[in-house]
Fold:
Amino acid sequence: MINLVYILLYLIPGIILGGYGSLFLKKGSSKLTFNLKKWKNNLEVIFGLVLFGSSTIFYLLALPYGELSVVYPLSSLSYIFISIVSMWYLDEKMTKLKWTGIVLIMIGSFLVVR
Structure:
């Protein structure tokens, strides 16, 4: 059971970084063009990629403490965080169906850990 504590200690910061990375990628995506030279000026996309990449490092740190079949489903808890962040910062609407999906993700993650 102690391995689960280490896994969560690494995954939770990774989930938060990945969630905010996704937020910045979403915000910066509205300014993207097919001109790759202009991408270097899109600070939101660059910051989003840095945050998203940082979340991958935390995911890698969690992997030695558990089986991939446990760690990877736990990383799906990021959907919950991303949904909350998108409501706060992007004014996205959450329907009952979306909340049902999030609850099912939480139940599924709990069952995999058990």
Q: What stands out?
A: The mean pLDDT is 87. Residues 2-113 form one domain. The first helix runs from residue 2 to 29.
